[in-house]
Amino acid sequence: MAAQDTLAQRALATEPEAVIRVRDLKVAFGEKVIMDGLNLDVMRGEILGFVGGSGQGKSVLTRTILGLVRKSRGTIEVFGENVDTLSPPKRRVLERRFGVMFQQGALFSALTVKQNIQVPMREYLHLSPDLLDEMAMVKLDLVGLPPDAADKAPSELSGGMIKRAALARALALDPEIVFLDEPTSGLDPIGAAEFDELIMTLKQTLGLTVFMVTHDLDSLYHACDRIAALADRKVIAAGPLATMLASDHPWLKAYFGGERAMARLPAGERELHT
């Protein structure tokens, strides 16, 4: 019996841990219902690609998990804690474990890149100016930006550099979960591929869990460990790419079975799905 207990404990220890659990979520703006009965798990250490049609609520879900949008019904657990039951001090502790990169970067235009990165540090940490500067430079290096980018204004940066600066700010507090909202939107194919590689590298080196809202097929195919698809106000499928390709749902068939999507598959795999 003791041996069986040990085996069961080992099996449980190797099962993926859901660091975010969303159950029966409903979000509405007045009479307009965005999500209703949505369920979703985000596993520790994965890059989850969250995909759906335009205006279906992908970014709304991110903001609801972060507490920026009020839900009408349902539960959200993060690291095993129901966020609705947390006291304000515990909520602030939880928020330090998040990093967020908003769509288009959302850098403060009146601040330099270095000052943008330091915004979360100034809010949550009590550090000397010299240490703040040192930590900001570490984050710049982490995302592949040159040191001279630190004192530039966002308006002086290219689109790819803005994305990396926004990612550096998201990493300012050494988070465990990073939320990325359309991180490759507006980038050319080379820049988008380089950003995907950066995210995959950071996931490995920092042990990040990444929740990536995206419509970029290349990101979904090459960077994501799993994909969750939003349609009909809920998650209609979640799993690896093969799960998406095997689905009979009309939206998934159109999205992943179209000519542009099929062109991204290796030739042998493409034949299996045509």
- Overall, the morphology is globular
Report the biggest beta sheet as strand number plus sense, adding barrel if it closes: 6 strands, mixed
Please indicate the percent range of residues in DSSP E strands (runs of 2 or more): 15-25%
Please identify the oligomeric state: single chain
- Tally of extended strands? 10
Radius of gyration of CA atoms, rounded to a whole number? 20 Å
**Unreliable stretches covering 5 or more consecutive residues:** none
Strand arrangement, major sheet = 6-7-8-3-9-10
SSE string, helices as H and strands as E = HEEEHEEHEHHHEHEHEEHHHH
How much helicity do the residues have? 40-55%
Mean pLDDT: 87
Termini separation comes to 50 Å
Structural class of the helices, strands and pairings? Answer: alpha/beta
Number of helices, where a helix is a run of at least 4 consecutive DSSP H or I residues:
12
Can I get a quick summary?
Helix content is 42%, strand content 23%.
What does this structure look like?
The chain is α/β, with parallel strands linked by helices and about 270 residues long. About 40% of the residues lie in helices and about 25% in strands. It is built from twelve helices and ten strands. The protein has helices at about 1-15, 60-65, 90-95, 115-125, 130-140, 160-170, 190-205, 215-220, 240-245, 250-255, 260, 265-270; strands at about 20-30, 30-45, 45-50, 75-80, 80, 100, 175-180, 210-215, 225-230, 235-240. Strands 6-7-8-3-9-10 form a six-stranded mixed beta sheet. Strands 2-1-4-5 form a four-stranded antiparallel beta sheet, covered by helices on one side. Strand 4 (about 75-80) and strand 5 form a beta hairpin. Helix 4 packs across helix 5, helix 4 packs parallel to helix 6 and helix 5 packs across helix 6 (about 160-170). The longest helix has 18 residues, at about 190-205. It is globular and about 55 Å long. The mean pLDDT is about 85.
